[in-house]
TrEMBL record:
InterPro entries for this protein: TPR-like_helical_dom_sf
Upper lineage: Bacteria, Bacillati, Actinomycetota, Actinomycetes, Micrococcales
Identification of the protein by name: Bacterial transcriptional activator domain-containing protein
Superkingdom field: Bacteria
SUPFAM superfamilies: TPR-like (SSF48452)
Length: 168
C-alpha cells in the first residue's frame, strides 16, 4: 500500500484511494480560512459528496466549481461523467498553471473508473509538470503515479499471464 501524503493543514491524501481526508478539522478550517468553497470541500472530504454537489449546483461554473462537481460525481460513482468533465477541463487548461491540477484529478477519476493505464499517463505528465516546483504537490503526483502503476500492473494481460503461470 502507498503511504498517505500531507496535503495541507489538517488534511492528507490517503494512499489507499488517493482521496483527501480531514485529519484535524480545526486546523483544516484555519488553513482554508477565506476560501469561499471551504464548506463544500469539507463536505466532500468527509464523505458527504451528495450534500457537496447540492451546494455547488447554483454556483457560477468556474473551472474550480466544475472540478469539484466532477469530484462529487466520481465519489458518487458516476465515473463517466467525472472523466468527461475532466477531459474538457484538461483541454481548456492545457499549457496553463492549472493543467497539472486538472490532469491529476482526471487521473483519479480514470482510476476510479477502472482505466489505470490512462491514469498512469496523466500522473506521469503531472509529475513532469510539477518537478522542480512545490514539493508537496510533487509528492501527491508521485503518490498517484505509484497507486495507478500498481493498479495497471494488476490488470494488465501480462500480469494475469504471469499470475497464471505461478499458480500452476
Amino acid at each position: 500500500m502507498t503511504s498517505d501524503v500531507a496535503g495541507g493543514p489538517g488534511w492528507i491524501i490517503r494512499g489507499a484511494d488517493l482521496r483527501p481526508a480531514i485529519t484535524d478539522l480545526a486546523a483544516f478550517r484555519d488553513g482554508m480560512a477565506g476560501d469561499p468553497l471551504v464548506t463544500v470541500i469539507e463536505l466532500l472530504w468527509t464523505g458527504q459528496a451528495q450534500r457537496a454537489l447540492d451546494r455547488l449546483q447554483g454556483l457560477p461554473r468556474s473551472p474550480r466549481v466544475r472540478a469539484l462537481i466532477a469530484d462529487c460525481r466520481r465519489d458518487l460513482g458516476d465515473h463517466a461523467a467525472a472523466v468527461r468533465e475532466y477531459d474538457q477541463l484538461v483541454a481548456e487548461c492545457g499549457d496553463t498553471p492549472r493543467e497539472a491540477v486538472m490532469r491529476q484529478h482526471r487521473a483519479k477519476a480514470l482510476l476510479a473508473a477502472g482505466h489505470a493505464d490512462r491514469a498512469v499517463e496523466d500522473f506521469r505528465r503531472v509529475v513532469e509538470l510539477r518537478r522542480g516546483h512545490d514539493t508537496a504537490l510533487l509528492a501527491s503526483a508521485e503518490q498517484g503515479l505509484a497507486v495507478a502503476s500498481a493498479a495497471a500492473s494488476r490488470t494488465s494481460p501480462t500480469s494475469a499471464i504471469a499470475g497464471d503461470r505461478g499458480a500452476r
